[in-house]
Every structure is written in structure tokens, then in C-alpha cells.
Amino acid sequence: MSPAQHLTLPQGSRVAIVTDSASSLTPEMGASYGIHIVPIYVMFGTQTYRDGVDLDADLFYRMLSGSKQLPTTSQPTAADFVEAYTTLSQQAEAIVSIHASGRMSATVDSAQAARAQLPDVPIHVIDSRLIAVAQGLLVLTAARAAASGQNGEEVARFTEEMISRIHIICAMETMEYLHKGGRIGGAAALLGSALRIKPILHMADGQIEPLEKPRTRKRAIDRVLDLMGERVGSSKTVHAIVMHCNVPDEAQALVERVAARFPCQELLTMEAGPIIGTHAGPGTLGVVFYAESTA
Asked: Same topology for domains 3-40+75-163 and 167-291, yes or no?
């Protein structure tokens, strides 16, 4: 039985929100916010797992640390989305389907192919141009818009408008996974850099790009906060998530620093999943956020 069949729309909502597990949203968060999460596939050798179904973050990082080869990931199929959309259309007036950046994943292509097979269902497919927890924050804002009673077109338009406002800034702990053959967009350019640097990454034009190359972990995390400050500016309301790859204690310490420095209306902690975990590696730590307008 599809998980979509167990999903109940929030009271007052007429719109179903769909995303993929690259968003790093857990099944529990999906259930809490009324979000249907279609799993990406993660392959360790000949074994295939459904992210968030057969493979949670804890098991993923344990397997990653013991694996000589990097796992690979594959997008959900069009059939996966057809199943979800068909079921959700029985209780929703419209569907807004928000996916990992098309420059980093073909998931949005599968969603668009599924939409083409269901011409009678109002489906808005959105390329988030984001990845991991940044994509997750966008999906959460869309779910809140849907819960407020907005219709499908309104939720889709609001979601598109939010994309450019969401920032992700993170620091890698190790270059090991890039040197194993990993790649995350323009960050592959770091392969010629010294092994001991602690690169800071951000999203630009729909893919992960290197931003700075500090040489110590402390300097990298300090700079993540400074860069966040530059983007927040004078805003008096910030929505933020501390993102980490298997370093919960460091994430909690960063939460405390973010809370002390910024006027956070919302401050969560989330563990990034296989797409970031595979290529940036355990120890990656950073912030995802948007600031409300000062106007």
C-alpha cells in the first residue's frame, strides 16, 4: 500500500504537497505537515534502498563509513509519481510537487513525465533549484501556505517566489568523499585544492558551488555565521534550520550560536540525507534560512 494512501491533508487545506526524499524531510515531518515524500533510490553495491523507507539517516551514515565505494543515487520513476498523484488526487483539489534542483537530479523530470500522464489532475511541478535541507525548508513553507487555505495556483506561485529567498551555507569537514569520486555541482572544482581545507559551499544557479576555503574547522563555522549575517541583514525575523551530516552534537552547538545571534522565529535541526552525505561527507555542517522582508 502506498504511503500516500495514509496521508491526510491538514484541516482547511485543499492542496496536496509532494516532494522527494532529497529534501531531507523525515517521514515523521511529512506526516506532521501533511507532505507526501516520494523516496529516491540509494544503491550500495548491488543492494537498493528507498531513502526514508528502508534506509534512515543513521543507517545510511553507518553504511557509508564502512563502504569502500561510494553509494549511488537514482531518482524516483515516473510510475512512482503517478501512483502518488493518483491517490492524492482523490482527496485534494490540486497537487504542488516540489523537487530537487534539476541541475543536480533528474527527479523533476520524472515528476513532469507523471504529470503528462494525468492530464485531468491539476498538478504544479516545481524545480526548487535547491537541494537537501534548503529544498526541505521550501517544502515546509509551501505546506504552511496550503494549510492556510490557498489554492493550487496560489501555493505554486508563492513557492516559486520563495526559492530565491532561501539560502544554504555549509562547511565540509573532509575532502575525502570528493576525492573518492563524489561530486556536487561546481564543488568538484575543489578537487585540486589542498586536502586540509574546510570548504564552505552554497547554492548558486541551482547547484552547489564553493564559496570560501578556510583552513580550520573553527574558522569555517565562524565564517558560515558571518555569511549568514550578511544575507540576513537588518531583518527582524529569520526562519532557520541547522543542517548536519551525522554530527548532532556540533549541530546543537551551532543552533545555540544561531539563536544567540539572529532573531529566529523558527529554528530547527535536520540531518541531511544521501545526496549531500555521499558527496560532501559526514561532518558537513551549516545553516539553511530565509529572512522576512524589513519593508
From this structure: no
Q: How many Å apart are CA 28 and CA 38, to the nearest integer?
A: 14
Q: Enter the pTM of the model.
A: 0.93
pLDDT tens per residue, range 248-284 = 999 999 999 999 999 999 999 999 988 888 888 899 9
Cα end-to-end span (Å), the chain: 48
Percent of the chain scored above 70 by pLDDT? 92
From the candidate CATH numbers 3.10.120.10, 3.40.50.10170, 1.10.150.130, 2.60.120.280, the one assigned to the domain spanning 3-40+75-163: 3.40.50.10170
Model confidence at 8, in pLDDT bands (50, 70, 90)? confident
Beta bridge partners of 50: 41
Secondary structure letter of residue 244 according to DSSP: E
Q: What are phi and psi of 124, to 5 degrees?
A: -105, 110
Average per-residue pLDDT for the chain: 92
Domain 167-291 has CATH 3.30.1180.10: yes
The 3-state secondary structure of 110-176 reads HHHHHHHHCCCCCEEEEECCCCHHHHHHHHHHHHHHHHCCCCHHHHHHHHHHHHCCCEEEEECCCCH
Sign (positive or negative) of CA dihedral 106, 111, 116, 122 = negative
Helices 78-88 and 107-117, interaxial angle, to 10°?
50
The amino acid present at 10, given as its one-letter code, is P
